[in-house]
Structures are given as C-alpha cells and as structure tokens.
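Ticket reopened. Same input as before:
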Amino acid sequence: MKIDPIHQFNIEPLFTIGHIGNQTIAFTNSSLYMFIAVALTAVLMLGGGRQLVPGRFQSVAEISYEFVASTIRSTAGSEGMKFFPLIFTLFMFICVSNLVGIIPYTFTISSHIIVTAALAFLVFFTVLFYGLYKNGLKFFKIFVPSGVPIYILPLVMFIEILSFFLRPVSHSVRLFANMLAGHIALKVFAGFVAMLGVSLGAVGWIGGILPLALTVALTALELLVAFLQAYVFAILTCIYLNDAIHPGH
Amino acid sequence: MAEKSQGAPAKGQKTGAHTEADGGHHGGGFPPFESSTFASQLVSLVIAFVALYLIVSRIALPRVGGVIDARQNAIEGDLAAAQKLKDESAAALKAYEADLASARSRAQAIGAETREKLNAASEAERKTLEDQLSAKLAQAEKTIAATRETAMSNVRGIAADAAGAIVQRLTGVLPDGGALNSAVDASLKG
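Engineering reply: fixed in the latest deploy. New output:
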C-alpha cells in the first residue's frame, strides 16, 4: 500500500505541443483539467436555456451571475462592472477547477503556485495599468492615506507601498497553500484508512472508522474551502480594482 | 520527466514514515515548485483562460444578463399592466357607485312625488265624501226633527183628548177646551 500525498500534484505530460527556446511545451494533466474547467463553466453558463421562469440548471447560471455581480457592486461600486467579465472568469475558473479537484483521482490546477501566481499577477497588472491609465499620477494617492499625521507619513507610505507590491504574493499563496494543504490532509487521512485495514486486519478495519469519518468531514470542509477560496480570490480582486477606480480611499 | 524518475523509487518504498520522508526527500522535486513544468502550465493557462474569458464576455454574460433583464422587464411590465387594470376597475367601481347613488336618489324622488300626488288625491276624495256624508247627515237630521215635530204635535192632541176623557170620567163634566189646552201645555213644559 503506497501512500504518497505529494504524488497527486505531479505534472504528467500527455503529449508534446512544441518548444519555446529550450523549453518543452507539453499538454499535461494540468492542461487537461484547465480545459475541463473551461468546458464545465461554458456548459454551466450556456446549457441552461433562457426561460422566463428558470429551471434548476438555468438558476445556477443566473445565481452565479448575480452573485459575482453583487460582489463587484458592493466592493468596487457600479464602475467596477467594467471588470465583470474578468472577475467572473477568474471566479468561475478557480471555483470550478477547485470543485473538480475534490473528486478523487483528479488534478487540482490551483495547487500549483505558478498558476495562482499567474492569475494574481494578471490582477496586479490590471490594477496597476488601469489605475495609471484612468487616474494618471493621482493613482499614487493610494500610498498616501488621508488623515495621517505628517511625522509618521513616511512610515505609513513605506508600509502601503510594500503591501501593494506584496499583494500578488499573498493573493496567489493564499489560494495555492489552501488547496495544497487541504489535498495533502485529505490524502493522508484517506491513506490511514487503507493502511490500518491492510496492516492490522480486522482490528484495523474497526480502527479505520475514525480516519474514514475524518476524511468525510475533511471532504465537506474542502468543498467549502474550494468555493471560499475562489470567492476570496474574486473579492480581493474587486478590492484591488476598487483602488484603481477610486484611488483617493 | 523529472517526476517520473522520482516516481520510480517512491513506488519501491514502504508506507511507514514515507509521508514524512517524502516531503524532505523531494525538496526541490516538490511538484508545485518544479520549474521545468512552469512553461507548459503557463501556456495552457493562457490558452484556457483567454478561451474562457472570450466565452464568458462574448456569449455567456450577455446571454444570462439578457435573460435576467428580460425577466425584470417582463415583471415590471406585468406589474404596470396589473396596476393599470386595478386602476381601471377602481374607476369603473366608482362610476358604478355614482350611477347607483344617482339612480337611488332619483327613485326616492319619484317615490316621494308619487306619494304626494296620491296623498293629495285621496285627501280630495275624502273631503268630497265627507261633504256628501255631512250633507246627508244634515238632511237626515232635518227629517228627524220634522218627524219629531209632527210626532210631538200629535202627542199633544192625544194628551189633550186623554186628559179631557180622564176629567170627564172622573168628574162627569167635559172640561173647557181652552183650560185643557193650557193645562196640557203647562204639564208638557214641566
């Protein structure tokens, strides 16, 4: 009985697409699950019909739409609706891929730092460029909070600037670490069940009940985390975009 | 490829402290930090994300948003139509009530007029009847008085005759007519 909680994160190339420089570009299991997430999102959003009185399927699409739209409106105002497609794409991509990742034997895209970092930098540069484009130099007001006494202003500005540039780090690591840790914990507890059953026989079967119950509970928790981390990623994106739209705090 | 070479020894190992050892053992080989896979993942991510962005922004959101807007409009339109119908029915009810009230007052007026007319007619009839009756009564009274008069004069004659006869029977003398008459008159008055 082999238990390797890290094995589930392995990137397995399925076939090679081409080369960039000396890097081999392969279609991997990660790529496969990215496209599965894209396909599931597309089916979810487009397969539900367009009835006046929605069915269940259509309701899910509409609830997702309204959920993201109201999140943007409440955090970034109605001007934030400019970024609705971006935030909706981020939310659905992360949420769907996280939820798919809970199914045993699947791969979780967001358990790889490169993926979450790429998404976080996408948000970071969107904020930076849109903020400079829309507000010009006034954008830098976000580093100067109003109502701070002049003698501690340099310190506050230093902290604000530092936190601004650390945003993509915290933004990406939060999602990555949550998914990674959750999946390792699930794998370890599920592994205990099999280990006890195999090595201790009948006693092990009884002893395995506890880790099995824990695995079930953890799966429920991971379902919550999968949704919650997608929501957190989306709402942080909204909050960062709000800085770009209204830099004066 | 690096993972595959790691996967092989991992299979040979036994469970036990494997999980602990694995984390330490892998070190740089921890899959999320395996930089040789980054390029492949980034390329796939860019393609997948752009594809999803295009699907979402071009098709899915306009479609779902359109359905939601259409529903909102339909609900608002239906509510407005319902309000309009309600107003119309309220107006119709008001008009009906006004009509009813005027009809009722007209009916009352007609009723009062008719009653008045009937009262006047019956009063007049009653009056003529009373007149007729009182005329008849007066005539009857006159007749009664005349009859009584005659009867009384007859009574006087009979009384005088009877008194003459009684006096004659008692005294044997026929009394004088004048004295008799005055005596009868006196007794009739008394």
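Chain A has a mean pLDDT of 89. The CA atoms of residues 95 and 230 of chain A lie 5 Å apart. Please confirm and we'll close it.
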